[in-house]
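Notes for week 9. Today we move from apo structures to complexes. The key idea is that a small molecule is not decoration. When we ask for a structure prediction with fe (ii) ion present, the ligand SMILES becomes part of the input, just like the chain. The input block below holds both the sequence and the ligand string. Read it once before you look at the output, and try to guess where the molecule might sit.
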Amino acid sequence: MTLSYMPGFGNDFETESLPGALPQGQNSPQRCAYGLYAEQLSGSPFTAPRGTNERSWLYRIRPSVRHTARFHPVSYKLWNTAPNIDDHELALGQLRWDPIPTPSEPTNFIAGMRTMTTAGDVHTQVGMATHVYVLNEAMRDDYFFNADAEMLLVPQDGEIRVYTEMGIMDVAPKEICVLPRGMVFKIEPKDGPSRGYVCENYGAKFTLPDRGPIGANCLANPRDFKTPTAWYEDKETDCRITVKWCGRFYVTEIGHSPLDVVAWHGNYAPYKYDLTTYSPVGAILFDHPDPSIFTVLTAPSGEAGTANIDFVIFPERWMVAEHTFRPPWYHRNIMSEFMGLICGQYDAKEEGFVPGGMSLHNMMLPHGPDAMGFDKASNAELRPQKLSGTMAFMFETRFPQHLTRYAANLDTLQDNYLDCWSGLKKRFNGTPEGILD
Ligand SMILES: [Fe+2]
């Protein structure tokens, strides 16, 4: 199957998989072509300002009321939702984990979700959760929608195929995809067991950050975001839809596929993005801009410049700054930082932070380069240097991130993470030169 996509971010798209399926000049004809039902999916309140008003019109084989029967509660104990505080006994600290292993038993995307942290409160639609998914089984007749959150998926190992109501996306490592709140989807691995990171965004949708003095280009450019064209399955088999709603899970059984949208138009839609198309901007003479210069997507909180979530990447780039300590500086931050590594090495931590691993530097906890990285960068010859083959990312939020019991008790939690800084010795002796190595 060849997939096709439409370029642009937040565009008003239109697409049909059968000729004439999409009404022209109106949304709700008395009778839709092919006997389809017209249905609106609202991603913002009806009265939201134009800049944030999002909805799509779906023309489908059955209306969504026929895609839910009576709900039954179902439990996914490792998928947690904020507020989820006091869930463990682990003391405060900077934390780092090795990758979560892929399970040996059959595990699909829903069962394979492992929550690491939660922040904010789903009931007031603020905050977020970070997760890792580990899966080795397709959702063949299983479908899912998340009423709690928009979902940002960051595959790390293995490509996945994401079937949504509005089309199909293939998403490989170094790509991401975003599934709007309420969108019905299923996921299958394309080539064996897969692992990736997920950010659940309880708040306002991700959007592109303003560029300020950077101007009209660079960072994530709108044309590099891809929304799938319409696709449907006309399948009359026993199917299940699982719903996540205010942190609880419910399942309903129906006799057909809910992915039955033949045509659609609107601006509330899933999309994917290739992180290697991000055009980084950075220091070209000395010092550092803040890491916000690497923001791909930002989810605003209502307070200007104070994001509910920033999705930030650390991609391949040239380091050219003169008389400068080039890795990230030491810092403490009011925002809380969850990091993952998709591939390669991260420049502040050449060891210990491995692809598929994670770190958590929570509100106001100090962090920065390890002792080895400090020594190396302090003594390096400052020629232009390319950081190649690397892609790290950060889910950063204005809210403190609370560990789940699962994350606190994970076997892959590194006991010795703090030791990475223990070699940072006192270099002060009252002389301007300090103590040299
Ligand atoms: Fe940081």
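Residues 53 and 176 are 23 Å apart (CA to CA).
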